[in-house]
Amino acid sequence: MEALLLATTLIAAYVSLKHSCALSDSAEVIIGLGPSAFSYQKLVDLLAKHSSYVVKTIETRKQVNAIVARVPLTSEAFDLFNEIEAEELAEYIEPNARIISVQFVPNDPHWTNFTHQWGPQKVNASWAWDKTIGDRNILVAVPDTGIDYNHEDLQANYVQGGYDWVNSDNDPMDDDATIGSGGHGTHCAGIIAAQINNSKGIAGLAQVRVMAEKCLDDQGWGTFADCADAIIHAVDQGARIVSISWGTYYRSEAIHNAVKYAHDAGVLLVAGSGNNGWTGKFYPAAFDEVIAVTATDTADTKSSFANYGNWVELAAPGGDNSGYADIWSTIRNNDYGGLSGTSEACPHVVGVAALVWSCFPNMTRDQLRVHLRKTATDLGALGFDDQYGYGLIDANASVSQPPPDHDLLVLNWQKPAYAELYVPVKINATILNYGLTDESNVVVQLLANGTVADTQTIGSLTSGVSSTVNFTWTRFVERDYNLSVHIMPANGETAIEDNEVCGVVTKEVGVIRVPQQYPTIQEAVDAANPGDTIRVASGQYTETVNIYKNGLKLIGEGKTATVVDCANAGSWGFVATNVQGLQISGFKIMNTFGYEDPILVVSGILLCNVRNATITENELKWNYGDQTWENGGAITITSWSCYNVVKNNTMIDNRCGIRLEYAYSDWNLIKENYLKENSYGIILLDALNNLVYHNNIDSSITQLRTDDVSSNQWFGRWNVTGNFWSNYTGIDDGSNNRTARDGVGDTNIPHQRVDPNPLMARWMPGDITHDGKVGPPDFARIAVAYGKTCNDTDWKPLHVHADLDEDGKVGPADMAIVSRYFGKDWKYYWGFP
């Protein structure tokens, strides 16, 4: 098991208190049980030992696989997590935080007058109804704000059996009050299964049974634990389809485990892609086990608000932002209303899937999923694309076109990004029999540069069933290889476009290149092994990068060459959670803005429960954070993030330059950064024992905000130099226990109540005299100090200033720094004209 750095975790007082997940002095966390049969009781005992207790359990098939615990927001929690880690009692620990649910877009005031059901017409539902209007043997679960089961248009198709996880009772009535008359869950349920031909309201897509799992409150928020419970319970109640119209940009392991539980049970999971118009992955939609659905408008173009990317699988009607093309459906109190969002697109896919299963009841889940892809109407670029996935769902085509008699395909495969010379590697491929005929002796080949390297035979493969084949391959030649998995066509098979997949395996062990091997940084992260180096070439990348593996090194080609532009990607450039040993360097990260996530603060780079990371040589610009003035910005370090180094970065015109906050974000080194024209230069809130020096805080509206003036240190090893503050009003006159002027302020200190040694000029390497440039006076100073060490009896402040690398001696390394920058000034060093 990976070292449970997971342990000292995201529960953060910040997360919990800001978003009301916690009492004033405690917070809830989800602890996934480890493999030991005694994990549960040991955890209970440890919790009691550390003033904590179990709130609830998350169970699958009557077996506890996670607990929700309330822990104190004190150092005692830190001790608790360390003991959990030492005894390997947990697979993961994460906050039981609230997640965004209501995936609709605000509407025009006239939306209540719009009654046209253009969505079902766009997917050809009326033609499909000639074949079937739905089979009541199919149960669809809607984990959401609940369902108004008394609604005149839902009573006939609603069934009991769901649960209210918010209020812990058996009455999952919809109490959502965020939209018009209210009822987000009711609105989604109506799109799926409102009664047809009853002369009332609207027509749902499928006359199947629908049940409620209430996991979101009256404001559209729900905890990870409640949402996970809702999915698990729906599966246990016999649901064949789960419709998910909520999500977050954070990868919750509790939610993912619930999704995998449903997937392993053969349940079809469908989720909206999110409503920010970004490419950033939105979970649970972005999990491989889930069909991610983007939204289209009346012109069959992607809705402006809909998230998109190569992780989106299908498109469906979701409306637009005008108020005149909303999706009409049921809302609370026997009412009807229009909404737009991927929340509305998702149940369109669910309804069509229910019709297909009604028409072809023997289809397996994987067969149905592929069927929806193959019968979709292609939009945008030919074939699969980032805007629409496989295309717009088509109810008529889906129920009218059965799978062919013979069709084998590669459902998915796993290959390494690189391979060592002479070291065997595993390549796995899952083969699906999409056709209607059982197949025998299915031959699957692994080819390396076109030559057969391994062959496996599947003795029998029943219609709708998949089987995984395992290949072994060894690289004997020092070169890159194109590997492919190829299925020999079955007798009578004519659709062979999905019989082969291919990809490159490189000779660079431990190195993955973007875009040569993977077109996006996120795909490279997903493919990487812990400790890999991801090299990103010059160019512009529009994405949010979610980092969740230890030891990754993400290296761009320079802070003006490799640009991560988040204007259309998401709220973050790089967001790292629960990892250690990370490196991010050589990027320009810009244009994060505006979205207030319930867990992760909007930032160009966000470290959340991260240790021993190095963030260096980056430029961060125009990162404006969330709606709170001081929140987020360029770099944020939060939630048990310790021993990280943030060095030599440039931050210009951000909401905040560097922000350290809450819950043991301690012992970090913030050194040699340039922060210019930010709303806030540096913010430290409940962050202790951090070392902050040789930074240039220039022309920020507020240079510094801190609630601690004692534990954080504002000078380097020798306690003689601090930071440059452009609003410092003191002078360097040789006072303050100094014998001569040394480029360090001597009056009107400590600056901002924290920095007793502010620099008179902006810091740059080699500037011993602290005048903002490197020249003859610096050479003279280093010549006098050359050869001195901190062990000498005459080790003086003059020598200390010449010890540029702070190693306790003045020697060749220090001379090299002065020589390298001789004749240069701070503007040259920081890249300013």
Structure write-up:
Helices cover 17% and strands 28% of the residues. By secondary structure, the chain is α/β, with parallel strands linked by helices. The chain has 4 domains: 4-96, Alpha-Beta Plaits; 100-400, Rossmann fold, CATH 3.40.50; 408-505, Immunoglobulins (Immunoglobulin-like); 558-713. The strands form 9 sheets. Strands 22-23-26-29-32-35-38-41 form an 8-stranded parallel sheet, with helices on one face. Strands 24-27-30-33-36-39-42-44 form an 8-stranded parallel sheet, with no helix packed on it. The protein has a 7-stranded parallel sheet with strand order 25-28-31-34-37-40-43. The longest helix has 18 residues, at 342-359. The radius of gyration is 30 Å and the shape is globular.
Task: Report the mean per-residue pLDDT as an integer.
Answer: 89
Report the helical percentage: 10-25%
Q: Could you give the order of strands across the largest sheet?
A: 22-23-26-29-32-35-38-41
| Beta-strand segment tally | 44
Q: Biggest sheet, in brief?
A: 8 strands, parallel
CATH topological fold name of the largest domain: Rossmann fold
Q: How many discrete domains?
A: 4
**Global outline:** globular
Structural class by sheet pairing and helices: alpha/beta
Rounded radius of gyration (Å): 30 Å
Q: What proportion of the residues form beta strands (DSSP E)?
A: 25-35%
The number of distinct helices, counting runs of at least 4 residues, comes to 16
CATH architecture of the largest domain: 3-Layer(aba) Sandwich
CATH superfamily of the largest domain: Peptidase S8/S53 domain
CATH class assignment of the largest domain: Alpha Beta
In the predicted model, the low-confidence regions spanning at least 5 consecutive residues are: 1-24, 103-114
